[in-house]
Amino acid sequence: MRMSCRAQASVFILLAACAGACSKSPLASQADSGANAGTKVKLVLNWVPEPEFGGFYAARDGGAYRRQGFDVELIGGGAGVPVVQMVATGRAHFGTIGADELLTARARGADVVAVFATFQTSPQGIMVHASRKLASIADVFRSGTLAIEPGMAYAAYLKQKFSWDGVQIVPYDGGVARFLTDPDFGQQCYVTSEPIAVRKEGADPHVFLIADTGYNPYTTVVVANRELVEQKPEMVSAFVAATAEGWSSYLADPRPTNQVLARLNPSMDPATLEAAVEAEKPLIATEQTKQFGLGSMSAERWATLARQLEELKLIDRAPPPADVFVPVAARKP
């Protein structure tokens, strides 16, 4: 991730989340503001078990959560899983979503806040065949066919930034079959997913990161109900510290956790899991996280994203950054 000098001067902070639910939620009786001993925590993911969530599984199975006194249940997600609603209503203590999703949810009245940002650089990209020899992402919109979800925030940003007059837009179907058979076909992708799948089939994809165009929301962001965070700040800090430890462990040696992920998600073989981890490492561990800790966030990044969503008319007005994420003292895991 590239940051301006101004951004580097900003206060980057490792954010916190708590392991119990707020007093008005169904989970309140499980929360303990003391030693956290035996505190049961539900973390709902917004997709199926994959390396994108490897650090959470490593924290659970490697003992990081347990050492902080938490008994964590990881709930695998998928298309349509109402992560925000589950967290906002106390059915889950924490959930993972994108930063732009969080701002959109806040605009709709969901009082959730960010507490840990896994991906410092968004893994969302546009994948094309290397044989097309496109020099930049702008070239993607000048010819050929592109499969993309036009309703997504990043698609709206790309349409505002580039002319789409030269490309045929078709719906994104979630697969790679057409990409493998059509050399002029491009599609949206996650660098940890579709490019790896097509390489296994012998294709040579070139990926343009959307983050490089200026739209770079934090991704796999852990969110919590505001009341929960405000009432249990010490537990919040402990949960985040354990999460950061899990991610540090996973990035250093993903093999034990990948064995767990392979059992939970048999569609991913060991080679695919390994390739996904290698693809995500530079997007999670950056120069900023070396200094401020895994999961850290800045007010400037949140303000930039809010301004972009307002300009795209996806939200009317975003709350100030201080109202979106919860800072504690900056520290390394």
Assigned CATH architecture of the largest domain: 3-Layer(aba) Sandwich
How much is the average pLDDT? 88
The side-by-side strand order for the widest beta sheet comes to 3-2-4-11-5
DSSP strand count: 12
SSE succession: HEEHHEHEHEEHEHEHEHEEHHHHHEH
- Gross geometry: globular
Biggest β-sheet description: 5 strands, mixed
Distance between the termini: 20 Å
What does this structure look like?
With 333 residues, this protein is an alpha/beta fold. It folds into two domains: 5-121 and 216-323, 3-Layer(aba) Sandwich (D-Maltodextrin-Binding Protein, domain 2); 124-213, 3-Layer(aba) Sandwich (D-Maltodextrin-Binding Protein, domain 2), CATH 3.40.190.10. It is 38% helix and 18% strand. Helix 7 (153-161) links the parallel strand 7 and strand 8.
Helix and strand topology:
Blueprint: H1 5-9, E1 12-14, E2 39-44, H2 54-61, H3 64-67, E3 70-75, H4 83-88, E4 94-97, H5 99-107, E5 112-119, E6 124-129, H6 137-140, E7 145-147, H7 153-161, E8 168-170, H8 177-181, E9 185-190, H9 194-200, E10 205-209, E11 219-225, H10 226-231, H11 233-252, H12 255-264, H13 270-284, H14 287-292, E12 296-298, H15 299-311
Parallel strand pairs: 2-3, 2-4, 7-8, 7-9
Antiparallel strand pairs: 1-12, 4-11, 5-11, 6-9, 6-10
